[in-house]
Protein backbone atom coordinates (compact mmCIF):
# COMPACT_ATOMS: atom_id res chain seq x y z
CA UNK A 1 0.00 0.00 0.00
CA UNK A 2 1.48 3.34 -1.08
CA UNK A 3 1.85 6.30 1.25
CA UNK A 4 -1.12 8.18 -0.26
CA UNK A 5 -3.48 5.24 0.23
CA UNK A 6 -2.34 4.67 3.83
CA UNK A 7 -3.03 8.34 4.63
CA UNK A 8 -6.54 8.13 3.16
CA UNK A 9 -7.41 5.01 5.20
CA UNK A 10 -6.13 6.62 8.38
CA UNK A 11 -8.23 9.70 7.70
CA UNK A 12 -11.34 7.61 7.16
CA UNK A 13 -10.78 5.63 10.41
CA UNK A 14 -10.20 8.82 12.39
CA UNK A 15 -13.32 10.38 10.92
CA UNK A 16 -15.43 7.32 11.78
CA UNK A 17 -14.16 7.33 15.34
CA UNK A 18 -14.89 11.01 15.77
CA UNK A 19 -18.41 10.55 14.46
CA UNK A 20 -18.96 7.65 16.89
CA UNK A 21 -17.92 9.82 19.83
CA UNK A 22 -20.05 12.74 18.73
CA UNK A 23 -23.06 10.47 18.28
CA UNK A 24 -22.91 8.94 21.86
CA UNK A 25 -25.87 10.03 23.99
CA UNK A 26 -25.32 12.38 26.91
CA UNK A 27 -24.51 10.62 30.23
CA UNK A 28 -23.26 7.49 28.51
CA UNK A 29 -19.73 7.90 29.92
CA UNK A 30 -18.67 4.93 32.13
CA UNK A 31 -19.43 5.49 35.82
CA UNK A 32 -16.83 4.85 38.48
CA UNK A 33 -17.36 3.85 42.13
CA UNK A 34 -15.32 5.03 45.09
CA UNK A 35 -15.60 4.41 48.84
CA UNK A 36 -15.85 7.41 51.14
CA UNK A 37 -15.26 7.41 54.90
CA UNK A 38 -16.11 9.56 57.87
CA UNK A 39 -15.67 9.31 61.67
CA UNK A 40 -18.92 9.68 63.60
CA UNK A 41 -19.00 9.32 67.38
CA UNK A 42 -15.50 7.84 67.03
CA UNK A 43 -16.82 5.02 64.82
CA UNK A 44 -15.69 4.74 61.17
CA UNK A 45 -18.61 4.92 58.70
CA UNK A 46 -18.36 4.20 54.94
CA UNK A 47 -20.50 4.55 51.83
CA UNK A 48 -20.16 4.03 48.08
CA UNK A 49 -20.30 6.98 45.65
CA UNK A 50 -20.88 6.17 41.95
CA UNK A 51 -20.57 8.79 39.16
CA UNK A 52 -18.65 9.59 36.02
CA UNK A 53 -16.36 11.74 38.13
CA UNK A 54 -17.10 10.62 41.71
CA UNK A 55 -16.13 12.79 44.66
CA UNK A 56 -16.73 12.38 48.38
CA UNK A 57 -19.33 14.72 49.90
CA UNK A 58 -18.42 17.30 52.50
CA UNK A 59 -17.22 15.69 55.72
CA UNK A 60 -16.23 12.46 53.95
CA UNK A 61 -12.92 11.46 52.38
CA UNK A 62 -11.26 8.66 50.44
CA UNK A 63 -8.78 8.22 53.26
CA UNK A 64 -10.02 5.88 56.01
CA UNK A 65 -9.72 7.69 59.38
CA UNK A 66 -8.52 6.01 62.54
CA UNK A 67 -10.63 6.16 65.74
CA UNK A 68 -9.08 7.94 68.68
CA UNK A 69 -7.79 5.19 70.93
CA UNK A 70 -8.22 7.07 74.20
CA UNK A 71 -11.91 7.71 73.77
CA UNK A 72 -12.67 4.05 73.03
CA UNK A 73 -10.62 2.55 75.86
CA UNK A 74 -12.80 0.84 78.42
CA UNK A 75 -15.95 0.92 76.28
CA UNK A 76 -15.91 -2.71 75.21
CA UNK A 77 -16.44 -1.59 71.60
CA UNK A 78 -14.40 -2.40 68.52
CA UNK A 79 -11.19 -0.37 68.79
CA UNK A 80 -11.00 -0.58 72.60
CA UNK A 81 -7.34 -1.29 73.32
CA UNK A 82 -8.35 -2.92 76.61
CA UNK A 83 -9.48 -5.83 74.43
CA UNK A 84 -6.08 -6.27 72.77
CA UNK A 85 -3.08 -7.97 74.42
CA UNK A 86 0.23 -9.08 72.89
CA UNK A 87 0.02 -12.80 73.65
CA UNK A 88 -1.80 -15.40 75.72
CA UNK A 89 -1.86 -15.14 79.51
CA UNK A 90 -3.54 -16.98 82.37
CA UNK A 91 -4.06 -14.86 85.49
CA UNK A 92 -4.02 -16.30 89.01
CA UNK A 93 -6.67 -14.63 91.18
CA UNK A 94 -7.97 -15.00 94.75
CA UNK A 95 -9.16 -12.96 97.69
CA UNK A 96 -12.33 -11.22 98.81
CA UNK A 97 -15.54 -13.25 98.88
CA UNK A 98 -17.35 -9.88 98.93
CA UNK A 99 -16.16 -9.52 95.32
CA UNK A 100 -16.94 -13.06 94.20
CA UNK A 101 -20.16 -12.43 92.21
CA UNK A 102 -18.50 -9.65 90.19
CA UNK A 103 -15.26 -11.59 89.75
CA UNK A 104 -17.20 -14.60 88.46
CA UNK A 105 -19.26 -12.44 86.07
CA UNK A 106 -16.19 -10.79 84.57
CA UNK A 107 -13.70 -13.69 84.43
CA UNK A 108 -15.84 -16.61 83.26
CA UNK A 109 -18.80 -17.49 81.07
CA UNK A 110 -20.29 -15.42 78.29
CA UNK A 111 -19.71 -12.11 80.12
CA UNK A 112 -16.08 -12.82 81.02
CA UNK A 113 -13.04 -10.92 79.77
CA UNK A 114 -10.98 -12.84 77.18
CA UNK A 115 -9.27 -10.22 74.94
CA UNK A 116 -10.15 -12.24 71.87
CA UNK A 117 -9.51 -15.58 73.53
CA UNK A 118 -6.00 -14.73 74.72
CA UNK A 119 -6.72 -14.16 78.43
CA UNK A 120 -8.02 -16.73 80.90
CA UNK A 121 -8.23 -16.84 84.68
CA UNK A 122 -7.69 -19.37 87.41
CA UNK A 123 -10.64 -20.50 89.48
CA UNK A 124 -11.61 -18.06 92.24
CA UNK A 125 -11.57 -19.72 95.69
CA UNK A 126 -12.84 -16.52 97.39
CA UNK A 127 -10.66 -17.34 100.38
CA UNK A 128 -10.98 -13.86 101.86
CA UNK A 129 -9.29 -10.47 101.70
CA UNK A 130 -6.37 -11.66 103.82
CA UNK A 131 -5.65 -14.38 101.26
CA UNK A 132 -5.80 -11.76 98.50
CA UNK A 133 -3.24 -9.53 100.22
CA UNK A 134 -0.97 -12.42 101.16
CA UNK A 135 -1.13 -13.98 97.70
CA UNK A 136 -0.20 -10.81 95.86
CA UNK A 137 2.70 -10.02 98.19
CA UNK A 138 4.18 -13.56 98.16
CA UNK A 139 3.98 -13.72 94.37
CA UNK A 140 1.44 -16.54 94.02
CA UNK A 141 -1.26 -14.26 92.55
CA UNK A 142 -1.43 -11.85 89.64
CA UNK A 143 -4.38 -10.00 91.18
CA UNK A 144 -5.30 -10.01 94.85
CA UNK A 145 -8.77 -8.81 95.82
CA UNK A 146 -9.39 -7.21 99.20
CA UNK A 147 -12.18 -5.13 100.71
CA UNK A 148 -9.48 -3.23 102.57
CA UNK A 149 -6.43 -2.01 100.69
CA UNK A 150 -3.00 -2.68 102.12
CA UNK A 151 -2.49 0.17 104.54
CA UNK A 152 -0.23 0.57 107.53
CA UNK A 153 -2.80 2.90 109.10
CA UNK A 154 -5.51 0.24 108.85
CA UNK A 155 -3.20 -2.52 110.03
CA UNK A 156 -3.63 -4.44 106.77
CA UNK A 157 -0.10 -4.12 105.39
CA UNK A 158 1.68 -7.48 105.69
CA UNK A 159 4.89 -7.45 107.68
CA UNK A 160 7.96 -6.54 105.63
CA UNK A 161 5.91 -5.32 102.64
CA UNK A 162 6.52 -1.91 101.05
CA UNK A 163 3.14 -0.44 100.08
CA UNK A 164 4.59 1.67 97.26
CA UNK A 165 5.62 -1.47 95.36
CA UNK A 166 1.94 -2.20 94.66
CA UNK A 167 -0.85 -0.50 92.78
CA UNK A 168 -4.27 -0.61 94.47
CA UNK A 169 -7.41 0.28 92.54
CA UNK A 170 -11.11 0.43 93.49
CA UNK A 171 -12.76 -2.68 92.03
CA UNK A 172 -16.38 -2.63 93.20
CA UNK A 173 -18.80 -0.67 95.40
CA UNK A 174 -21.23 -2.60 97.57
CA UNK A 175 -23.01 -2.87 100.87
CA UNK A 176 -23.00 -5.41 103.66
CA UNK A 177 -26.11 -6.38 105.60
CA UNK A 178 -26.85 -7.76 109.05
CA UNK A 179 -28.76 -10.93 108.27
CA UNK A 180 -30.85 -13.03 110.63
CA UNK A 181 -33.00 -16.17 110.63
CA UNK A 182 -36.16 -15.82 112.71
CA UNK A 183 -39.23 -17.44 111.18
CA UNK A 184 -42.29 -15.20 111.31
CA UNK A 185 -40.37 -12.09 112.36
CA UNK A 186 -39.77 -9.63 109.56
CA UNK A 187 -38.80 -5.95 109.56
CA UNK A 188 -36.58 -6.44 112.60
CA UNK A 189 -34.75 -3.29 113.67
CA UNK A 190 -31.31 -3.40 115.27
CA UNK A 191 -29.22 -0.46 116.42
CA UNK A 192 -25.47 -0.57 115.83
CA UNK A 193 -25.02 -0.67 119.61
CA UNK A 194 -27.27 -3.73 119.90
CA UNK A 195 -25.41 -5.54 117.12
CA UNK A 196 -22.11 -4.76 118.88
CA UNK A 197 -23.45 -6.06 122.18
CA UNK A 198 -24.64 -9.26 120.49
CA UNK A 199 -21.17 -9.86 119.09
CA UNK A 200 -19.56 -8.99 122.41
CA UNK A 201 -21.79 -11.27 124.48
CA UNK A 202 -23.76 -8.59 126.38
CA UNK A 203 -26.97 -9.56 124.54
CA UNK A 204 -27.56 -13.29 124.07
CA UNK A 205 -31.36 -13.56 123.62
CA UNK A 206 -33.59 -12.17 120.89
CA UNK A 207 -36.13 -11.35 123.60
CA UNK A 208 -33.68 -8.97 125.31
CA UNK A 209 -35.53 -5.84 126.43
CA UNK A 210 -33.23 -3.55 124.41
CA UNK A 211 -34.14 -5.28 121.14
CA UNK A 212 -37.82 -5.51 122.08
CA UNK A 213 -37.99 -1.80 122.89
CA UNK A 214 -36.17 -0.86 119.68
CA UNK A 215 -38.94 -2.73 117.85
CA UNK A 216 -41.84 -0.86 119.44
CA UNK A 217 -42.00 -2.51 122.86
CA UNK A 218 -43.72 -5.72 124.05
CA UNK A 219 -47.13 -4.62 122.76
CA UNK A 220 -46.01 -4.04 119.14
CA UNK A 221 -46.24 -6.81 116.55
CA UNK A 222 -42.50 -7.41 116.31
CA UNK A 223 -41.83 -6.73 119.99
CA UNK A 224 -44.54 -9.18 121.04
CA UNK A 225 -43.19 -11.85 118.69
CA UNK A 226 -39.71 -11.41 120.15
CA UNK A 227 -40.97 -11.50 123.74
CA UNK A 228 -42.91 -14.70 123.07
CA UNK A 229 -40.02 -16.63 121.55
CA UNK A 230 -39.52 -19.98 123.19
CA UNK A 231 -37.42 -21.81 120.62
CA UNK A 232 -34.61 -20.08 118.73
CA UNK A 233 -34.48 -17.29 121.32
CA UNK A 234 -30.78 -17.88 122.00
CA UNK A 235 -28.78 -15.96 119.44
CA UNK A 236 -26.35 -17.98 117.33
CA UNK A 237 -23.54 -15.57 116.38
CA UNK A 238 -21.87 -16.36 113.06
CA UNK A 239 -18.56 -14.72 112.22
CA UNK A 240 -15.75 -14.99 109.67
CA UNK A 241 -13.12 -17.46 110.81
CA UNK A 242 -10.31 -16.01 108.65
CA UNK A 243 -9.01 -12.56 107.83
CA UNK A 244 -11.83 -10.74 106.07
CA UNK A 245 -12.43 -7.35 104.50
CA UNK A 246 -16.15 -7.73 105.16
CA UNK A 247 -15.27 -8.13 108.84
CA UNK A 248 -13.23 -4.92 108.65
CA UNK A 249 -16.19 -3.01 107.19
CA UNK A 250 -18.53 -4.57 109.78
CA UNK A 251 -16.31 -3.69 112.76
CA UNK A 252 -15.71 -0.24 111.24
CA UNK A 253 -19.49 0.23 111.25
CA UNK A 254 -19.81 -0.99 114.87
CA UNK A 255 -16.99 1.33 115.93
CA UNK A 256 -18.30 4.42 114.13
CA UNK A 257 -22.06 3.96 114.45
CA UNK A 258 -22.31 1.86 117.58
CA UNK A 259 -19.67 3.49 119.72
CA UNK A 260 -17.87 0.19 120.24
CA UNK A 261 -14.43 0.57 121.77
CA UNK A 262 -12.75 -2.05 119.60
CA UNK A 263 -10.82 -0.60 116.66
CA UNK A 264 -11.85 -1.77 113.18
CA UNK A 265 -10.07 -4.97 112.20
CA UNK A 266 -10.35 -7.69 109.59
CA UNK A 267 -9.16 -10.35 112.04
CA UNK A 268 -11.60 -13.05 113.24
CA UNK A 269 -13.89 -11.45 115.80
CA UNK A 270 -14.66 -14.46 117.98
CA UNK A 271 -12.88 -17.60 119.13
CA UNK A 272 -9.79 -18.18 121.25
CA UNK A 273 -7.77 -15.37 119.68
CA UNK A 274 -10.65 -12.95 119.10
CA UNK A 275 -11.36 -9.85 121.14
CA UNK A 276 -15.14 -10.25 120.91
CA UNK A 277 -16.92 -12.50 123.39
CA UNK A 278 -20.24 -13.93 122.17
CA UNK A 279 -20.79 -17.30 123.86
CA UNK A 280 -22.75 -19.15 121.15
CA UNK A 281 -20.62 -18.85 118.00
CA UNK A 282 -19.97 -20.46 114.64
CA UNK A 283 -17.09 -19.59 112.31
CA UNK A 284 -17.57 -19.44 108.53
CA UNK A 285 -14.89 -19.45 105.83
CA UNK A 286 -16.31 -16.75 103.55
CA UNK A 287 -19.46 -14.82 102.61
CA UNK A 288 -21.01 -17.80 100.85
CA UNK A 289 -20.41 -20.09 103.83
CA UNK A 290 -21.70 -17.47 106.26
CA UNK A 291 -24.89 -17.10 104.21
CA UNK A 292 -25.31 -20.89 104.22
CA UNK A 293 -24.85 -20.97 107.99
CA UNK A 294 -27.48 -18.27 108.58
CA UNK A 295 -29.88 -20.27 106.42
CA UNK A 296 -29.15 -23.46 108.33
CA UNK A 297 -29.38 -22.06 111.88
CA UNK A 298 -32.70 -20.66 113.14
CA UNK A 299 -32.04 -17.88 115.65
CA UNK A 300 -28.76 -16.92 114.00
CA UNK A 301 -27.26 -13.55 113.06
CA UNK A 302 -24.42 -12.74 110.68
CA UNK A 303 -23.00 -10.18 108.27
CA UNK A 304 -22.73 -10.75 104.53
CA UNK A 305 -22.37 -8.80 101.30
CA UNK A 306 -25.70 -7.61 99.89
CA UNK A 307 -25.38 -9.55 96.63
CA UNK A 308 -25.64 -12.84 98.52
CA UNK A 309 -29.29 -12.05 99.22
CA UNK A 310 -29.88 -12.38 95.47
CA UNK A 311 -28.50 -15.92 95.24
CA UNK A 312 -31.15 -18.67 95.00
CA UNK A 313 -31.25 -20.72 98.18
CA UNK A 314 -30.73 -17.81 100.55
CA UNK A 315 -34.43 -17.04 100.90
CA UNK A 316 -34.47 -17.63 104.66
CA UNK A 317 -32.01 -14.81 105.26
CA UNK A 318 -33.73 -11.59 106.27
CA UNK A 319 -31.96 -8.27 106.43
CA UNK A 320 -32.26 -6.23 109.60
CA UNK A 321 -33.23 -2.60 109.30
CA UNK A 322 -30.33 -0.34 110.27
CA UNK A 323 -30.23 3.37 111.04
CA UNK A 324 -28.42 5.93 108.94
CA UNK A 325 -26.40 8.60 110.73
CA UNK A 326 -29.50 10.83 110.92
CA UNK A 327 -31.41 8.09 112.75
CA UNK A 328 -33.67 7.01 109.87
CA UNK A 329 -34.47 3.28 109.70
CA UNK A 330 -33.54 1.71 106.37
CA UNK A 331 -33.72 -1.53 104.50
CA UNK A 332 -30.73 -2.06 102.20
CA UNK A 333 -31.03 -1.03 98.56
CA UNK A 334 -28.44 -0.33 95.88
CA UNK A 335 -29.59 3.29 95.79
CA UNK A 336 -28.80 3.71 99.48
CA UNK A 337 -25.35 2.19 98.91
CA UNK A 338 -24.85 4.66 96.05
CA UNK A 339 -25.89 7.45 98.44
CA UNK A 340 -23.14 6.38 100.84
CA UNK A 341 -20.52 6.78 98.10
CA UNK A 342 -22.00 10.15 97.15
CA UNK A 343 -21.91 11.31 100.77
CA UNK A 344 -18.31 10.14 101.19
CA UNK A 345 -17.12 12.01 98.10
CA UNK A 346 -14.57 10.85 95.59
CA UNK A 347 -11.35 11.34 97.55
CA UNK A 348 -10.90 7.61 98.05
CA UNK A 349 -7.35 6.35 98.49
CA UNK A 350 -5.71 3.25 100.03
CA UNK A 351 -5.09 5.29 103.17
CA UNK A 352 -8.57 6.88 103.33
CA UNK A 353 -11.16 4.36 102.20
CA UNK A 354 -13.90 4.04 104.83
CA UNK A 355 -17.43 5.02 103.74
CA UNK A 356 -19.42 3.62 106.70
CA UNK A 357 -21.90 5.74 108.66
CA UNK A 358 -21.74 8.70 106.28
CA UNK A 359 -24.04 11.71 106.93
CA UNK A 360 -27.34 12.33 105.16
CA UNK A 361 -30.75 10.74 104.72
CA UNK A 362 -31.25 7.36 103.03
CA UNK A 363 -27.54 6.59 103.31
CA UNK A 364 -26.80 2.90 103.95
CA UNK A 365 -24.44 2.89 106.96
CA UNK A 366 -22.61 -0.33 106.06
CA UNK A 367 -21.17 0.36 102.59
CA UNK A 368 -17.67 -0.24 101.32
CA UNK A 369 -15.42 -0.20 98.29
CA UNK A 370 -13.38 -3.27 97.50
CA UNK A 371 -9.94 -3.19 95.90
CA UNK A 372 -7.76 -5.02 93.40
CA UNK A 373 -4.05 -5.13 94.22
CA UNK A 374 -1.29 -5.76 91.65
CA UNK A 375 2.47 -5.58 91.50
CA UNK A 376 3.52 -2.16 90.19
CA UNK A 377 6.64 -3.33 88.28
CA UNK A 378 5.50 -6.35 86.29
CA UNK A 379 7.97 -9.08 85.31
CA UNK A 380 6.09 -10.20 82.17
CA UNK A 381 4.82 -7.85 79.50
CA UNK A 382 2.01 -10.14 78.36
CA UNK A 383 0.80 -10.91 81.87
CA UNK A 384 1.10 -7.32 83.06
CA UNK A 385 -0.78 -5.96 80.06
CA UNK A 386 -3.56 -8.52 80.54
CA UNK A 387 -3.85 -7.56 84.22
CA UNK A 388 -4.19 -3.81 83.75
CA UNK A 389 -6.43 -4.04 80.70
CA UNK A 390 -8.80 -6.46 82.42
CA UNK A 391 -9.04 -4.16 85.45
CA UNK A 392 -9.57 -1.04 83.31
CA UNK A 393 -12.26 -2.83 81.25
CA UNK A 394 -13.93 -3.97 84.49
CA UNK A 395 -13.80 -0.50 86.07
CA UNK A 396 -15.56 1.02 83.07
CA UNK A 397 -17.47 -1.29 80.71
CA UNK A 398 -18.26 -4.14 83.11
CA UNK A 399 -19.44 -1.81 85.87
CA UNK A 400 -22.26 -0.66 83.61
CA UNK A 401 -22.90 -4.08 82.06
CA UNK A 402 -22.72 -6.39 85.07
CA UNK A 403 -22.41 -4.70 88.48
CA UNK A 404 -26.07 -3.97 89.24
CA UNK A 405 -27.12 -7.40 87.94
CA UNK A 406 -25.04 -9.13 90.60
CA UNK A 407 -25.83 -6.80 93.50
CA UNK A 408 -23.34 -3.93 93.34
CA UNK A 409 -23.37 -0.23 92.52
CA UNK A 410 -21.32 0.90 89.48
CA UNK A 411 -18.25 2.88 90.49
CA UNK A 412 -18.81 6.66 90.41
CA UNK A 413 -17.20 8.17 87.30
CA UNK A 414 -14.54 10.00 89.31
CA UNK A 415 -13.60 6.79 91.15
CA UNK A 416 -13.37 4.88 87.85
CA UNK A 417 -11.09 7.65 86.57
CA UNK A 418 -8.97 7.30 89.72
CA UNK A 419 -8.74 3.55 89.08
CA UNK A 420 -7.45 4.21 85.55
CA UNK A 421 -4.90 6.72 86.82
CA UNK A 422 -3.60 4.14 89.28
CA UNK A 423 -3.41 1.45 86.59
CA UNK A 424 -1.26 3.79 84.51
CA UNK A 425 1.44 3.44 87.18
CA UNK A 426 1.88 -0.26 86.36
CA UNK A 427 4.90 -0.81 84.11
CA UNK A 428 7.10 -3.39 82.41
CA UNK A 429 10.74 -2.36 81.97
CA UNK A 430 9.67 1.22 82.60
CA UNK A 431 6.93 1.24 79.93
CA UNK A 432 3.34 1.99 80.95
CA UNK A 433 1.27 -1.06 80.00
CA UNK A 434 -2.26 0.35 79.98
CA UNK A 435 -1.67 2.57 76.94
CA UNK A 436 0.02 -0.12 74.83
CA UNK A 437 -1.78 -0.69 71.50
CA UNK A 438 -0.44 -4.25 71.18
Task: Describe it.
It contains twelve helices and 17 strands. With 438 residues, the protein is an alpha/beta fold. Strands 4, 6, 7, 8, 9, 10, 11 and 14 form an eight-stranded mixed β-sheet that branches. β1 (32-40) and β2 form a beta hairpin. The protein is elongated and about 100 Å long.
Major sheet characteristics = 8 strands, mixed
- Taken from the alpha-carbon principal axes, the silhouette is elongated
Please, what is the average pLDDT? 91
Distance between the termini: 71 Å
**Fraction in beta strands:** 15-25%
**Run of helices and strands:** HEEHEEHEHEEHHHEHEHEEEEHEEHHEE
Using the coordinates above, name the CATH class of the largest domain: Alpha Beta
Write the CATH homologous superfamily of the largest domain.
Periplasmic binding protein-like II
Q: Concise description?
A:
The protein has 438 residues and is of the alpha/beta class. The chain has 12 helices and 17 strands. Helix 5 crosses helix 8 and helix 11 packs antiparallel against helix 12 (413-423).
Provide the fold topology.
Layout: H1 3-22, E1 32-40, E2 43-51, H2 69-72, E3 89-91, E4 93-95, H3 100-107, E5 119-121, H4 129-137, E6 143-146, E7 166-180, H5 192-199, H6 209-214, H7 221-227, E8 236-240, H8 245-258, E9 281-284, H9 287-296, E10 300-305, E11 318-319, E12 322-323, E13 329-330, H10 334-344, E14 367-375, E15 377-378, H11 381-403, H12 413-423, E16 427-428, E17 431-432
Parallel strand pairs: 3-5, 4-6, 8-9, 8-10, 15-16
Antiparallel strand pairs: 1-2, 6-14, 7-10, 7-11, 7-14, 12-13, 16-17
Helix pairs in contact: 5-8, 11-12
Amino acid sequence: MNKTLRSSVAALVASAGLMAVVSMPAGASAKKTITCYTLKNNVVKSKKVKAAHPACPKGWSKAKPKPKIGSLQGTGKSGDIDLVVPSSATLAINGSSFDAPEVEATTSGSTGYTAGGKVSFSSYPAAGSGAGRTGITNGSLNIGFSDTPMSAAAGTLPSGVTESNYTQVPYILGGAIVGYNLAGISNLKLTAQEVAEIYDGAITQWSDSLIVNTNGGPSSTVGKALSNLTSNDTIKVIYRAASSGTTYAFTDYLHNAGGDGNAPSGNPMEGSSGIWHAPNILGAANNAALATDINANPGSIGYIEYSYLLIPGNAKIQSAQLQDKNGQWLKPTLQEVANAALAAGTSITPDSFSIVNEPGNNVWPLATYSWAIVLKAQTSEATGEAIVKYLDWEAHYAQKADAANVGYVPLPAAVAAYARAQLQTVTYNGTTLLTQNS
